[in-house]
Amino acid sequence: MGLFLGWIFNNNEHFIKFANGLGATFINLISMIVLPIVISSLTVGIANLGDIKKLGTIGLKTLIYFEILSTIAFILGILVANITRIGYMIDLSHLKSVDISQYIHAAKANKDQGIGSLLLSIVPTNIFSALSKGAMLPIIFFCVLFGLGTAAIGEKGKIVLDFLNAIAAIMFKITNWVMRFAPFGVAGLIGATVAELGITTLKPLFIFILLAYLVMLIFIFGVLGITSRIFGLRITDQIKAVKEELILAFSTASSEVTLPGLIEKTQKLGVTKTISAFVIPTGYTFNLDGSAIYQGLAAIFMAQAYHLHLTFLQQLTLIITLMITSKGMAGIPGASFIVLMTSASAIGIPVSGLALIAGIDRLVDMGRTVVNVIGNVTATLVIGKLENGFSQKKHDAYIAGIENA
Fold first, then answer.
1. CB 62 within 8 A of CB 326
2. pTM of the predicted model, to two decimals?
């Protein structure tokens, strides 16, 4: 319905405004319940764990896994762009100019972001300020300490755990209500995108869009598929289990809207609550595989469009720059596009060239969000296996239930 309405009301400002309003309302509803779910689930999970050494082990393995997979995603995107050389195949000069002022403003506001500032920002000076900004890493840090503190006081902390368990149950119930509005929100977001961009604007970059989706599919069924097999899992089972969340991620281009569902589904897939509540929110900052693929692919694509020949050392510099800036800017709206802006100068790409692919960013964003989501599901199951926090029996029973439904 969104595609049809977008085609009918092409360039209709009133429709675009109304449709964007529907989509924004849905996103806001989901955003409203994300933090209460993360806080309650993570705090209870850490408190039940109770062992700071065990938590340190989970955290270390999680970050190592995230970094390995993200690096593979960056390299895959860059490698495919070098092999296909699609930047030389497309005449980008025919594209109409696209306004990227919002990205420039965001990039300037976050130009000093990097690993150092990221580490400093993990410890919140005011937890309520972090909550109001939706800053996930400081919130996770506080919840970990709060959970450990609750476990340390023993029986006195039971009343807090009961309260937080009740909050989690309430929030999941509200999530079910909110999801009934999802079709309207999705139709609005898709309709506004099609009406605003139009079909003809996208034709010159159709090859880039197709290649981006092809690389993402290779990553899902190749890299994530092999990773799953190594740990005795199947990527197809994971896709079946979270298909509703993947459709939602694709249509809204937002990972955040899937967070409540992923925490619940990964527990049904056999992972303990502690691991699920820790890995998934952390993955929203450190494990954005789809975004990594896009950034590597798009950077080389733009360089080729400008007929810039990049040496091996320049491309290695690009990978390192992307790895650092992508961690520093995760969670910012349009983060993948902003990372490209901050990294382009490292290999001599004019920032103005980013306007050439800004028009299709939303369409590619839908695909990379799906990869981000399924990547975090795989990560949660793998960490569960590594930490003996996984029930194969529960996993198999849930998958069998889906297949027999």
1. no
2. 0.72
